[in-house]
Structure formats: structure tokens, C-alpha cells
Amino acid sequence: MKMARTLACAATIGIAPSVADAEERDGPGLDVQVAYTMDVFFVDPGAGKSSTDYLDNLDLIADADLERIAGWRGARAHLYGLVNLGGRPNDRAGTLQGINNIEVSRQAARLFEAWLEQDIGPRTSVLAGLYDLNSEFYANDAAGLLIAPAFGIGTELSATGPNGPSIFPSTALAIRVNQTIGKTGYARAALFNANARTLGDRRGIDTAFRDGALAIAEGGIEGRHKLALGLWRYTKRQDDVLLGNAAPRKAQGAYVLAETPVVEREDGLSLRLFLRAGISDGKTTPFRGGWQAGLLATHVLPTRPDSALTFGANEVWLSRGYRAQMAADGLRPARAERAFELSYSDTLATWLTVQPDVQWIIRPGGERDRSSAWVAGLRTTLAF
Predict the structure, then answer these.
(1) Buried b vs exposed e over 175-212: b needs ≥16 C-beta within 10 Å?
(2) Tens digit of pLDDT for each residue in 165-202?
(3) For position 294, which CATH number holds?
(4) Which Pfam families match (predicted)?
(5) Bridging pattern class, strands 308-318 and 185-193
């Protein structure tokens, strides 16, 4: 499923290969992947002019087993480059959480990830470098095909920090420790530069750490079932979202996530359920929390083993300070923005995947008086 997320989600989530992945890989120890994703999205904002936008994303990924290549026991290297072009359909939709997980605010070629991972004994590994937080934290495999960004990482966390946390499209320098516990248990923790900038961004990689760091920890069980709890906090106080309030605030939050199979048939049909929720301090981010839930059905057509149908629902709760700021600007704020997504994916050839997608956003922008927005799109992925 990790590979499916890379190709179908087009780099919303970067992949950190496990020790078992490296051991099972045949060949000289170098795995290179190229994926090109093209999206055509139609937006009906409910009020105003509709539009059609084209977006694209190029993934260039290389994973190296350094033990096989150079005799460096228990070590792996990972390089991940991105090129993002195209339009910005959310400018028309006007949602708080976005509608497309390859949309960027500035077109650029970026170094998304560049890290080394070293095993320390059979159960512990340490990773250092440019690293995508959402590759291992706050992530559900069953949500991997959904295109709305809220299903990649909770919005109450993705909207934090000087430039957002270390997620698509800009990562930060980080160190991560992962510990397996028993057969299915795990605990992992990471420390990220709070200023997420990488090669390709203006001013490049930030090495000064003047904005402090983002600390995050997650633990639970994963495998056939997943249940986890995560905690995060910035080491340096952040600005209050309410303009005029100059007092910096502690920026922190927590989340829970769960995933389980509900149908597993011998003919290949599988149905997995995911559910997660997160909360924040509600002062340093426009959002005090939210939830996401959905179902992923795979092998839904008997003659199409790669056919998958997925449905997701999400809601983000606006913080009191953000609603007060909206009211001061003459808007009638709602308490939440809610959205639904239905998407079908199928592999037509070993190198070609297509995915039609429909989204419905209720009270986009958190505005009580706005009509619902509709989004329809087609994602095409070429993978080699």
C-alpha cells in the first residue's frame, strides 16, 4: 500500500522503507522510480465563475541499500525530487483545507527528501536529513487514494509553523528514532526544524533553527489493524492567529487514528475503515481540531484486480480567535468546514493509472453564507 500512496497520491506522502523492505528487494541494491501525475479539475464554487485547472507533479525517487552497494551494514539512503507546475484550483473553490494534494502555492522543482537511515540492533533505527513528517506520522494507508489534502495529515497540524510543518511540498532537516515493540507495536519520535524550507524554495534549506523545532511522537500498533496516539509541540512560542494579540502562545496538539479491515473475501474484495481525529491549542492555528473518516474498497470489480473505490468525509473546526477575526472582517463565520469525497482508481496498464474524483464542500472557507462548492476531476498517473 505504501507504493500505491506514492503513485496515486503523487507525493503527498513520502515513503520511508522499512528494514524488511530492503531485505526483500532483489538486484544491486538501488531502486529508482519515476512517476508523473496529471490532474484536470473542474470547480463550481457555488457562487461566482466556475473554472477548470490543470496541475501536474513529477516524482523522482531513488532508494539505496548501502549494505549491498558499499558494505555499510544496516544503512539505507533515500532521495526524492519533485517538480510541480500547473494551476491552483483552490483559489476558485476557496476552501480552508484545499481540494488537491499536488497543488502548490509556488511552482518549482524541489528536493523533497534526502536522508540516511541506520539500524541500531534488530528493533531500532535512526534517520536523519530532509524528511517528510507525514510519511510515518499521522498517516493512514486506507486514506492514501483520497485526493483532498485533509486526508494526508490533519489540518490542525498542517496549518502550523512559520511555513507549515515538514510535509509536501517543503520538508525540513530532522532526526527520527523508530522502535518496534513485539510483533505489531511501535514507538517513534522526531525533531524537525520548525522552518520548513528545502532546495528549490526561496533561500533554500534553513540550517539556523532560529524558529525553534517541532517535536512529535507517535506510538501504537500497526499491521492488519492500526491504532495509534500522537503528540506534537513546537519548542518556540508561535504568534496568535487573532490579529492585535501580540502574546506568543504555546503551539501543541494531539491526535488519534485507527484503521481496520471490515470485509476480507476470498475472491479478493477487501474493505478497510479508517477514522482519526486531532486537536490543537486553538490559538496558533486557525483550527482547534477536526476529524477524518472513510472506507477503502479494493478489487471492487471481479475482472479488475487493481480497481479501488474510496469514500472519505472530513470536518475541521475553526478556532474562536479565527472566527473573531473573520467577524471583524465583515464575514459570518461558521463553526466548521465539512467535505466529502468519492474516488475510483484503476490500473489500465502496468504504467498507467486513472482516477476520477468528486468532492462536495459545505460552507467552504468557513463562511456561513457561502453556497456549497463542487469539484470534479480526473487524475492520470504514469509510473516507471
Answers:
(1) ebbbebeeeeebebbbbbbbbbbbbbbeeebbeebebb
(2) 999 999 999 999 999 999 999 999 999 999 999 999 99
(3) 2.40.160
(4) OprB (PF04966)
(5) unpaired
What is the C-alpha to C-alpha distance for residues 238 and 155, in angstroms, rounded to an integer? 17
pLDDT in tens, 370-379: 999 999 999 9
Q: Locate cell 509541540: which residue?
A: 233
The answer to whether residue 37 sits within a structural domain is: no
Burial 350-381 (b: 16+ CB within 10 A, else e): eeebebebebebbbbbbbeebeebbbebebeb
Three-state SS at 320: helix
Kindly state whether residue 264 falls inside one of the protein's structural domains: yes
Cβ proximity of 76 and 116 under 8 Å: yes
For the record, the C-alpha cell of 31 comes out as 531502486
**Domain, as residue range, for 197:** 2-27+115-352+362-370
Rounded to whole angstroms, the Cα distance separating 210 from 206 reads 9
How far is 92 from 231, CA to CA, in rounded Å?
Answer: 34
Strand partners, 70: none
**317 residue type, one letter:** W
Total number of domains constituting the chain = 1
User: Would the CA dihedral through 343, 346, 350, 352 be positive or negative?
Assistant: negative
Residue recorded with cell 503528540? 231
pLDDT tens sequence across 318-366: 999 999 999 999 999 999 999 999 999 999 999 999 999 999 999 999 9
